[in-house]
Design goal:
binds phosphoenolpyruvate; eight-stranded parallel sheet; 3 domains; binds magnesium ion; TIM Barrel; Enzyme I, Chain A, domain 2; Glucose Oxidase, domain 1; alpha/beta
């Protein structure tokens, strides 16, 4: 019997392979009292292990920089800094000298204390720090005990799907993608540092599976789909067929992608659509272009900050934004200001303990409170406006005051740049993400103060339905076809049209074929999707008729339930688009798994 587990897709791709259980057990540390005359030897042994670990992490950082880029390599900085953290070093030395512990025992003792302390302040940032600390724990102990790098021995000999409780960035960069086909973890989030690296390395990954390490067995057959966030253990013939179908489709598409990339995003009856890409890292811009993006509809800049030991400086940010702008010199590039908070928190910000991080100090609220973080970013984006149609977009805006505050800051920064003779485009556009019901209901007022809207359906659905988007247990309740969501989409689209400003959608709904059909039917002619979805959605756009979409959307707007919304849209699509290929992925009710 197959066992199916759903978590969250963290890195695209579908793979089949044998399970390799990765249990990076810590070496056993023997208790031994150190004789007084050997104490300094133990201290020296600890210091040498620190140096060796630092050298190894530096090595990994350099390799990552060469393989993926300097921005990605900065993910190692927090761990390197931890090696010098007095809280770690001084206490360990103190335990050796005062308690006569061995280097290994003293270090282990200190790490366990820190883990207990940090775990008490539960929040996503602490989880990432704990993860880094655990990795350091293992690395330093292996050095003290003169054991080989734990990951070298854990790396599979044969191509396999790694199943682990969680990973660390240093493990992720050590992967040989030829031998690690995919990764499935109990914990982790899409924003875990290692998941960001897995995306850059194009290794499919599914996170947040809860208990996958206790269900999976070494050598078991498995299929992993990083797009829908699913793993199937012991797949049956039907699962394999679906897998093969998807794989064949992907392979056929790989050939077709370049053909599709060169075609226009226009419906069968002539409605042009601006089809742009969502990016997490600047390095993805090239991929987006190759996959046929006509610009960038959402550049999530917070990945420049998450996992870093310090704030990326203005210059570094400017280079990242310029890189993206120069990849799309003729097209729109929308740069979203830091959407930090929620499940994305950089280490350098002292985060208060919050009961509800998604309802807390997040996005524009945090930036307006932290001018030292926000102003350099605004300056960097303003400077990037000199390189094309670069626009600024504000996340999680709830009211006009927030926009006015940002406008005032921008004016000051513009003056600052002008005074120094630094070029920028004074005619740049400032837009808002509409991602709370407050913003959707107040769109008329917000439209007076913004140059464009982009609807963030991931958050809009979360906040409208009160369903945590990161809770896999609630995944079936996270329904973008809920009538309350559809009506807000309609309302925002109408307001934007009346105000004469562009409206787009950059949430996942735009990458859902039925969602794209609905959005076009609601007169939203600009969609932004993760770059791997671009060819699929372009194909869907080219196959549908805007007239059918309008009629179906009108009927969907009058539907009493989510199911009726989906049914009416499916009727509208008819047999113009083959939705069976998307069925499993989007729960379209066409044909279940
Ligand atoms: C959204 O909320 O739909 C969105 C696009 O932003 P993010 O997923 O980064 O919150
Ligand atoms: Mg959002």
């Amino acid at each position: 019997m197959p066992t199916v587990r759903d978590g969250f897709g963290a890195s695209e791709g579908i793979v089949e392979g044998k399970v390799r259980l990765l249990t990076l057990g810590l070496p056993v540390v023997q208790h031994r009292r150190v004789e007084p005359d050997r104490i300094e030897e133990e201290v020296a042994c600890f210091q040498a292990a620190r140096e060796k670990t630092r050298a190894r992490l530096q090595e990994l950082k350099t390799a990552t920089s060469q393989r993926l880029g300097s921005m990605e390599a900065r993910i190692f900085d927090p761990q390197i800094l931890m090696l010098d953290d007095l809280e770690v070093v001084d206490r360990t030395v103190e335990y050796i000298r005062e308690n006569h512990l061995t280097a290994a025992q003293a270090f282990e003792w200190r790490i366990l204390e820190l883990q207990a302390m940090w775990a008490r302040t539960f929040n996503p940032m602490t989880l990432d720090r704990l993860n880094d600390l655990e990795d350091l724990h293992s690395r330093v102990l292996h050095c003290i005990l003169d054991l080989p790098d734990p990951f070298d021995t854990a790396h599979p000999e044969e191509p396999a799907i790694l199943v682990a409780q969680n990973l660390t960035p240093s493990m992720a960069v050590q992967f040989d993608p030829r031998r690690v086909r995919g990764i499935a973890t109990d914990g982790g989030t899409r924003t875990s540092h290692w998941a960001i690296l897995a995306r850059s390395l194009s290794v499919p990954a599914v996170v947040g599976l809860g208990d996958i390490t206790s269900l999976a067995e070494e050598g078991q057959d498995a299929i992993l789909d990083g797009r829908i966030g699913r793993i199937i253990l012991d797949p049956d013939e039907r699962d394999r067929e679906v897998f093969r179908g998807r794989e064949t489709q992907i392979r056929a598409w790989e050939k077709e992608i370049f053909k599709i990339a060169g075609l226009e995003a226009v419906t069968d009856d002539g409605q042009p659509v601006a089809l742009r890409a969502n990016l997490d890292l600047p390095g993805e811009a090239e991929q987006a272009k190759n996959h046929g993006a006509t610009g960038v509809g959402l550049f999530r800049t917070e990945f420049l900050a998450v996992g870093r030991a310090s704030l990326p400086c203005e210059e570094e940010q400017y280079e990242a934004y310029r890189q993206v702008a120069e990849t799309f010199p003729e097209s729109t590039v929308v740069i979203r200001t830091f959407d930090l908070g929620g499940d994305k928190f950089p280490m350098f910000l002292r985060k208060p303990r919050e009961e509800n991080p998604f309802l807390g100090w997040r996005a524009i609220r945090l930036c307006l409170d932290q001018p030292d973080l926000f102003r350099p970013q605004l300056r960097a984006i303003l400077r990037a406006t000199a390189h094309g149609d670069v626009r600024i977009m504000l996340p999680l805006v709830n009211n006009v005051e927030e926009v006015l505050q940002v406008r005032a800051l921008l004016e000051e920064e513009e003056d600052h740049l002008s005074a120094k003779g630094i070029p920028f485009n004074p005619g740049y556009k400032l837009g808002l993400l509409i991602e709370t019901p407050a913003a959707a209901l107040d769109a008329v007022e917000l439209a007076r103060h913004s140059d464009f809207f982009s609807i963030g359906t991931n958050d809009l659905v979360q906040y409208t339905l009160a369903v945590d988007r990161t809770n896999s247990r609630l995944a079936s309740l996270f329904n973008p076809f809920h009538p309350a969501v559809v009506r807000q989409l309609h309302q925002v689209s109408r307001v934007a049209r009346a105000a004469g400003i562009e409206v787009s959608v950059c949430g996942e709904l735009a990458a859902n074929p039925l969602g794209a059909f609905l959005l076009l039917g609601l007169d939203i002619h600009s969609l932004s999707v993760a770059w791997p979805s671009l060819p699929e959605i372009k194909k869907v756009i080219r196959e549908l008729r805007i007239e059918d979409a309008r009629k179906a959307a009108a009927r969907a707007l009058a539907a009493p339930t989510s199911k009726d919304v989906a049914t009416r849209l499916l009727e509208g699509v008819g047999d113009r688009i083959d939705l069976s290929a998307f069925a499993g992925r989007w729960n379209l009710n066409v044909s279940p798994r």
